[in-house]
From TrEMBL:
Protein name: Gfo/Idh/MocA family protein
One Pfam family here: GFO_IDH_MocA
Taxonomy of the source species: Bacteria, Bacillati, Actinomycetota, Actinomycetes, Geodermatophilales
SUPFAM superfamilies for the chain: Glyceraldehyde-3-phosphate dehydrogenase-like, C-terminal domain, NAD(P)-binding Rossmann-fold domains
Coiled-coil ranges per UniProt: none
Species name: Geodermatophilus maliterrae
Gfo/Idh/MocA-like oxidoreductase N-terminal domain location: 8-124
Domain named GFO/IDH/MocA-like oxidoreductase: residues: 134-241
Gene3D superfamilies named among the record's database cross-references: Dihydrodipicolinate Reductase, domain 2, NAD(P)-binding Rossmann-like Domain
């Protein structure tokens, strides 16, 4: 890839997330200019007023000659056609989660980026979260012991989407986190979901990601219909347990020195069948940094210098394969093997150092 120093960056789709990218990218000295693209002029005007140096466009074709890289923050079903147009024009691209709404679409983006020799980054923001990396260190180092299970909950009242269900909207975060913790995809996925306030799309869903070779499962609960906002990942091991709470201002990671053991040999009917150990609760230091800012700065660095991309298109593809398998399971009512959706079931390479 040919480095592109001081890139000109465009953001297409300047709604809730797109406007956050505008704020971050506008603050980076390594970005020479920022353009915003949205067909709705009422979204462009307040941003141009807040950031007068921005250049606004209502059409992507008109904007492409004025950018070297593009951040795509549009509805998920539009990601592939927009990204393909940008990649085919030789532009570097960061796509908000999910990378695509099908494995075939995600693979097409990966192949096109390879052919054009440009950066394709999946917007897996939590993989740029220092607390998630601290949790990964606890898992990978064996500090928690043998893994029993992982449980993740991402709940809130809204925001309802108009083109995808709650699995495609919220679960990409949890799947990418769990892929990072485990260093690989699961062997199979099973999903359950219900439609309550939405007639077309499931607004509550549960996923079970199974790792057959180690006899472990990871569970994901996502909901647009819950009275409490929850952003929590729990990892339970044979020696210790860890909880990552993204809503905690200070103790985002808490390690519980607790475990349960079963007596070896023949059971003594006169004794309790299990023994429980209770120890201290510790909270390791986690550096404070905005994950979106870390991600966007990394994207710009990759474009400017050719540095290795920590969440490349293949990482996005791996997440889409799990989501697609979950969607298939949701419709069939049965577990779905990842091999049926192109999952390699091999170790996922983790690029770059901890944020």
């Amino acid at each position: 890839m040919k480095p592109c120093p001081d890139p000109r960056v465009g953001i297409i789709g300047v709604g809730y997330w797109g406007s956050k990218h505008v704020r971050v990218l506008h603050s980076l000295e390594s970005v020479s200019s920022v353009a915003i693209i949205d067909s709705r002029e009422e979204r462009l005007r307040p941003l141009v007023k807040s950031f007068p140096s921005l250049r606004g466009f209502t059409d992507l074709d008109a904007a492409l000659p004025h950018v070297d890289a593009l951040v795509i923050a549009t509805p998920p079903t539009t990601h592939v056609p927009i990204a393909l147009k940008a990649l085919s024009a030789g532009k570097h691209v960061l796509v908000e989660k999910p990378l695509a709404t099908s494995s075939a679409g995600a693979q097409q983006l990966v192949d096109t980026a390879d052919q054009q020799d440009v950066v394709l980054m999946a917007g897996h923001t939590f993989e740029y979260n220092s607390a998630v990396w601290r949790l990964r260190e606890l898992v990978q180092s064996g500090a928690l012991g043998e893994l029993f299970y992982i449980d993740s909950a991402r709940l809130n009242l809204g925001l309802y989407q108009t083109d995808v269900n709650v699995i495609w909207d919220l679960a990409p975060h949890d799947v990418s986190i769990i892929n990072l913790l485990m260093g690989r995809q699961p062997s199979s996925v099973q999903a359950w979901g219900s439609r309550h306030a939405h007639r077309r799309f499931e607004d509550v869903a549960y996923l079970r990601m199974t790792y057959e070779d180690i006899g472990m499962s990871a569970h994901i609960h996502v909901s647009w219909l819950d009275p409490c906002k929850v952003r929590r990942v729990t990892v339970v091991g044979s020696r210790k347990m860890a909880v990552y709470n993204d809503l905690s201002a200070e103790e985002r990671i808490r390690v519980h020195d607790k475990s349960v053991s079963f007596p070896a040999g023949d059971a003594d009917l006169t004794q309790p069948p299990m023994s429980y150990r209770y120890g201290d609760i510790t909270s390791p230091y986690v550096p404070a940094a905005e994950p979106l800012a870390v991600q966007d700065e990394h994207f710009v660095t990759c474009v400017a210098t050719g540095a290795r991309n920590r969440t490349p298109g293949r990482s996005g593809l791996a997440v889409v394969q799990v989501l697609e398998a979950a969607q298939t399971s949701l419709q069939s009512g049965r577990p779905t093997s990842l091999t049926a959706h192109g999952g390699v079931r091999a170790d996922l390479a983790v690029s770059g150092a901890r944020p």
